[in-house]
Amino acid sequence: MWNVDDSTRVIRTYKGHVNSRSFVGLSVWRNGGLLGCGSENNRVFVYDKRWGEPIWVHGFEPVAGPESDHGFVSSVCWGQVGEDQCRLLAGGSDGVLQVFVGKRKLFSY
Question: One biological-process term from Gene Ontology (predicted)?
Fold first, then answer.
């Protein structure tokens, strides 16, 4: 993540996902403060924008069967559902679309 006023200043680096040769998607759930990201290791990652480590990871079945690792998650998109709920859609390079439902946790101190 970069500072919009100074694009040379890195604010945070997010770890875990792989992106070296294929386009992998990125999407922001602004109300929840979450980033959804595809990966070349055929997984979808969710990050809280405040931390560099993923808070949730889900693997897709490999494109060529269970023993292959050739697929990648190429597209992700958040959808707002009500005030504190969301849907994360993730599409694999094999054309399979998966839908995940989430809810923002409210903390009381």
Answer: response to UV-B
